[in-house]
Protein: Lipoprotein
Organism: Streptomyces regalis
Amino acid sequence: MKTSWRSASLVVSAVAVAALTTACGSETAPPASSQNVGATAAAGDYGSAGTGLGNGSGYDPGAAGQESAETQAASAGELSVSTNQELGELLTDSAGLTLYRFDKDTADPAKSNCDGDCAKKWPPVPADDATAGTGIDKALLGSVTRSDGTKQLTVDGWPAYRFAKDVNAGDVNGQGVGGTWYALAPDGKKAQGGAGAEAADLPGLSTRKDPKLGEIVIDKNGHTVYRFMKDTQWPMSTKCTGECLEKWPVVAPVDAEDTEGIDLQGSTPNRGYVVFDRPDGIKQQSIDCVPIYTFAGDKKPGDTNGQGVGGTWFAVRPDGKPVGASEK
């Protein structure tokens, strides 16, 4: 980590609550439960994705009835390599539908963490008859046994899925959804073009120089990090709940040692770099005591489609301040 506060990394735990609350804007430490107060107002004006390769807003529950059993259980057949203008090479099934991977799964050992309603939105690809077409290393193809006993195709250990809202061959509407779903490249990695390859070894949080916005914070996938101007520093609270989180996924906790360039100059060590325990049970990273997010409408590293959305969402500078907006 290349920050002025590396030597005092903050670990948020029960024994550190007093330090955490004091760091986030109060001279006198408030009650230990204060990190969860004032945080549950739903946001009706959190903005719309409206940009990128797909709709970026996640799955529409109203469309569930349109999914056919045949589509969900369709065999993969011979896999192919398709080229997308922005994502580069990606895997498709015999019908030309894009295959995806889920960040919450694991590849070693292979394990799927998408069941129930998730599996309706993201149908697992059966492993039974999947074969490697031209440009695909058959040694990378395997299978994992799901919780229901069925066999799911894996690519270099990563369970493979389709997206229920991809209708036509070549559709990539699932790319970047929720900040956790990505098209599969032929080698099992995320298909994000050249920029995706550059982002492969990034720290949990770091910075990059954007030609229009200047120095901004990015996550481990190279995606721009944002803050919501209706959130508050103290008491730390969020107005982005429910459906808002489909468009603005939270940034999960990142260890202070897994950052580079985060610069809270003028603050005490680690002041404001704490984990926010949201009222919905999700743990969210903050910078300068403000919760941070990514945008589902950013489909690849370098995108800044969330900048200025709704007049309330702005990219984050290394010191946690919003780019192009004044704090009240």
Q: What stands out?
A: Residues 6-51+198-315 form one domain.
